[in-house]
Amino acid sequence: MLFDDTYLTIKQNAESLFSDRGSKFIAYAYQIRTETDVKPLVAQLKAIHPKANHHCWAVRLGPDRTVFKVNDDGEPSGTAGRPMLNVLLSKNVTDTLVVVVRYFGGKLLGVPGLINAYKTATEQVLTEAGTIEKVITDVYTLTFEYPQMNDVMRIIKEEDLQVLEQTADLRCALKIAIRKSKVNQTIGRFEGISNIHIQYYIGG
Q1: Cα dihedral value 101, 104, 105, 106, nearest 10
Q2: Whole-number pLDDT of residue 105
Q3: Phi, psi of 91 (to 5 degrees)
């Protein structure tokens, strides 16, 4: 196989607490799909924790894991978001946002202490969230005449494809998800059916 068609993300949203010298670091992990999900979630935590000193976060997105952003939210540069992101990178998870809410406890932790606290808080919440492997799929729509239904469904069953939407009338339409590494082989099989129209679904 030329490319990896699976990726890891967190199994569920989670929350955990880490304390150091009186400072509390409350970590939250969220499953997200796009960058636009970040701001509302951070705003929500600011509303829940209005008296907290910092709301730092790190996010990694996309099955190819290429999109990432960090925010130190007033902590010394590189002491919060970057160590949090490093944990996301080392655990190899994506489509994940981690926010760490800090209540200052009166004692300065220093740069090494901050880095360790944000790193540990992130590791704890990711352990709490667990990980799950997801398969990268391409989505296609198939349109065909009703008599072809059996042939189409046989391929779907044999290739273990996921049917996302289905309309059956005189002319039938199916929206299906195909594992990326099996697209060519599967589409080739569908093309063997007469009068079938196969279209790549851009919104997928």
Answers
A1: 170
A2: 95
A3: -85, -10
- What are the C-alpha distances in Å from 64 to residues 3, 5, 17, 23, 67? 10, 9, 30, 36, 8
CATH class, 6-134 region: alpha beta
Sorted by sequence, the CB contacts under 8 Å of residue 145 that are 6+ apart come out as 170, 171, 172, 195
Q: Which of 49, 44, 122 is nearest to 79 (CA)?
A: 122
Q: Please say whether the structural domain 137-200 has been given the CATH code 3.40.50.980.
A: no
- List pLDDT tens digits, range 143-175: 999 999 999 999 999 999 999 999 888 789 999
Q: Where are the chain's structural domains?
A: 6-134, 137-200
Instruction: Tell me how far apart the 2 most distant CA atoms of the chain are, in Å.
Output: 75
Instruction: Say if 6-134 and 137-200 have the same CATH topology.
Output: no
